[in-house]
Write a structure and sequence with these properties.
This protein is mainly alpha-helical. The protein has a single domain, classed as Four Helix Bundle (Hemerythrin (Met), subunit A), CATH 1.20.120. The chain contains six helices and no strands.
């Protein structure tokens, strides 16, 4: 006896979204996941460690960490700002990766630019947290940020060029 499948369900079953997960994970998507993971790791190993070591050792009550007043060691303040930088740029990269995926735009240059975004983000955050903010450190940090912005613009240009009839 032949089983009837409603129209569209068979296509849905073959959809890449229902296929093996590794088949639908493009390099841009992996880089976006990496960016999100870096944002979480940065928060945990800097801000989280700083706060929880002080709270758990009884040096500071939990209520002392207010959002409207950042106090503490200089590297902690830089960590807070580095994490905020990640939060500010993650939606931009997410929108670009979504557009790349939705349009089917890809290739070696797209992959390379997305990898550059993640590498530059990790390096920018690391320089921000690890080094006192001298002119040299800020210049290096800005160079890594500039690479991200240039990559974003390059990816947008590729999307626009790829969408022309």
């Amino acid at each position: 006896m032949r089983r009837l499948v409603p129209e569209g369900v068979a296509d849905l079953r073959r959809s890449r979204f229902l296929a093996h997960p590794s088949l639908s994970m493009t390099t841009p998507i992996w880089m976006l996941v990496g960016f999100a993971a870096w944002t979480i790791v940065l928060l945990l190993v800097t801000v989280g460690v700083y706060r929880w070591t002080r709270i758990l050792t009884g040096r500071v009550p939990i209520r002392e960490f207010r959002a409207d007043r950042v106090e503490g060691d200089d590297w902690y303040k830089r960590s807070m700002r580095a994490h905020a930088n990640c939060i500010e740029n993650l939606p931009i990269f997410g929108a670009i990766v979504f557009a790349l995926d939705a349009s089917g735009t890809g290739g070696a240059l797209v992959d390379a630019l997305c990898m550059l975004v993640l590498a530059a983000r990790i390096l920018q955050s690391s320089v921000h947290v690890a080094f006192e903010q001298t002119n040299a450190a800020v210049s290096v940090r800005f160079a890594f940020y500039f690479l991200q912005v240039a990559s974003f613009l390059g990816l947008i240009a590729i999307l626009v060029a790829d969408s022309r009839p």
